[in-house]
Specification:
This protein has helices spanning 95-112, 167-181, 225-233, and strands at residues 8-12, 15-16, 22-26, 29-34, 41-49, 53-63, 136-142, 145-149, 156-157, 197-204, 211-217. It is of the alpha+beta class.
Length: 235
């Protein structure tokens, strides 16, 4: 099959990559498809063609996988089928399938990278909580936007909520967005080499409810420090 960029091909998705792209083969060519999951048959548009693989975007799900589910996150997938928020990779898969894939990925890495023959890996232990369980997050910052980087991009998915993060952590994120919008804080601009804030890390303690907010910055002196600390510690 003579495949060209811009061409739309029909593809059976047999696996998934670490970053959530569906995997299929067009004859001998490996194709990684945004918006596809194992078990799907899709119409995919070739966006980038390399010597040994291609990157594609789902244009239509011709036959949906039994493992597919509708993502319950409005930031997970864009209207064009491309992944938007890079905060998680498998939101469109049923949880049981996610557990199976994660175990298989560990096996593949131990055998392919570690050189271990037939590694013995236990079944993935399911989490008792599917929402609001993450206790650490790193938010990217650019302009007046704060959130996660879009998959395969340096652009920011400007999220106002993440169902994997505690609501109190998202409140910190949204307060910092207010500071970015009113210019109390200025994001660092790599091109202009000016500004202050590069990244925000939040750690949350389940047992106490306490949080640690870490600013990764371009300067040791934080502008409007008292105002920011007061707003961030107010009940």
């Amino acid at each position: 099959m003579d495949i060209k960029e811009g061409q739309i091909i029909e593809l059976d998705i047999t696996d998934v990559s670490d970053d959530g792209k569906g995997f299929g083969r067009a004859e001998d060519l490996a194709v990684f498809v945004e918006g596809a999951v194992p078990g799907d048959r899709v119409l995919a548009e070739i966006k980038k063609l390399k010597k040994n693989f291609a990157l594609a975007v789902t244009k239509e799900v011709a036959s949906p996988s039994p493992f597919r589910r509708e993502s319950d996150c409005p930031f997970f997938q864009g209207r064009d089928g491309r992944g938007e928020c890079g905060g998680c990779a498998y939101r469109q898969l049923k949880y049981e399938k996610q557990l199976e894939i994660k175990r298989r990925q560990v096996i593949n890495k131990l055998s392919r990278i570690g050189g271990i023959e037939n590694p013995q890996v236990a079944e993935t232990v399911a989490s008792p909580e599917l929402f609001r369980y993450r206790d650490k997050v790193e938010f990217a910052v650019k302009g007046a936007h704060i959130g996660f980087r879009k998959r395969g991009s340096h652009e920011i998915a400007d999220i106002t909520d993440c169902q994997l993060l505690p609501e109190s952590v998202m409140a910190v994120c949204n307060k910092i967005r207010e500071f970015l919008n009113d210019r109390t804080l200025k994001a660092y601009d790599d091109k202009k080499t000016r500004g202050f804030l590069r990244q925000v890390t939040v750690k949350w303690a389940l047992g106490t409810g306490q949080m640690m907010v870490i600013f990764t910055a371009a300067d040791t002196k934080m502008p409007s420090a008292e105002k920011i600390i007061t707003a961030m510690t107010r009940p």
